[in-house]
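Exercise 7. Given the components listed, write out the predicted structure of the assembled complex. Treat all entries as one system.
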Amino acid sequence: MNVVRVVLPAHLRMLAHLDCELALEVTGVVTQRSILDAVEARYPMLRGTIRDHVTHERRPLVRFFACEEDLSFDRPDAPLPEDVARGREPFLIVGAMAGG
Amino acid sequence: MTAIRLLVGTRKGAFILTSSGVRDKWEITGPLFSGWEVYHLKSSPADADRLYAAPSTGWFGQMIHRSNDGGRTWEPVGNKFVYDGVTDTHKWYDGTPHPWEFKRVWHLEPAPTDRDTVYAGVEDAALFRTRDGGQSWHEMPGLRRHRSAGSWQPGAGGLCLHTILLDPSHRGRIFVAISAAGAFRSDDAGETWTPINRGLKSRNELPDPDAEVGHCVHRIAMHPKRPNVLFMQKHWDVMRSDDAGESWHEVSGNLPTDFGFPIDVHAHEPDTIYVVPITSDSEHFPPDGKLRVYRSRSGGNEWEALTNGLPQRDCYVNVLRDAMAVDSLDPCGIYFGTSGGQVYASADAGDHWTAIVDHLPPVLSVEAQTFSRWG
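Answer.
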């Protein structure tokens, strides 16, 4: 069992009534998919806001960052860095930069 | 004691403006859903405390929230809007086929007698319904499967179903309007649909000006006691139908311009209607910098400018299609919100206006709820 740290963007923290980062238990290999499964299991109101309800594809304007890398375009089942899996670094869910 | 609640959706959240029936002092609550675009929120006619809201963002998609206490607290409910079965294509801006894709909810229309039943008009254009208070949403696919749907093409605002009218006297009759497909009517509770666009003319927008579908209808309004008479603000032209949409005729009359977005009907006078003329499709602001509501007491053609209390110089705001509403008091109250963040109110059917709030984010929608409040 791994305890993974997850940081949500402000809009989603408001929706989930959170004011700090999450600590989530994730079983097995820590991947984008296993983290998002755990997020949605604990906070069902976030379903559909990070990835599509049906296809589970990442929403186009959502990004996944960790360890100073953009992991948004990695495969959902690719193992995440060891530092994320061990909770030393957070997994960041970010709204893509927009505006002028 | 009778009170009024204005439900105001904006680009950056929702606000609730509450007043006694005197309508002279307003209490402002908000922002609710701070930072989210709230295209629409509306109360249930069956339960004054039951409200629904449709916040969305381009980043995180659609949410639906529900309140059981008149907007003091809210809970998220279902946000899964999945088209029924195989999704075909409609026309994209460049004329190529484009698959139907859900983008957002534009309008929520709670059913008159059941607080848990709500219709939702969405982009890309389709009609959804919940029967469990918003927990689950199901498409009513007959509309999107209409034989003309493959030819529907979005206007600048998207291919949106923005108007839903439930006929209170004709069981199963529903009117909807889509930009830019036109108006449709169902007489069997949404199973099948008929385009009702005969008489509309879109000379500069369509190659066939009086095509069966493709018109950019901005808004339809109906008085519940005379549901066979419909009023329409089209892209250009203000129109009227006296036969439930079977045919339309123009009633723009002496309006300074017949382009605009909202249209609404007085709560007690079915022939008194309101529009807000906008300069043109390329200049979305009032003519001459003067914000004027126009009222017709004859069901169209003869219009009078209502200006008392509205800015008559240097005003370049817009009023969007869902941003005008009437209450059910006597005299009738009428309200509208602007792209500049003002909400204007008139407690005397439009004769005098007051800005009851000045600096909200751009207003997307205004609904007026008349309800009983103790104390």
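Discussion: Chain B has a mean pLDDT of 97. Chain B touches chain A at residues 33-36, 57-63, 76, 79-80, 82 (CB under 8 Å).
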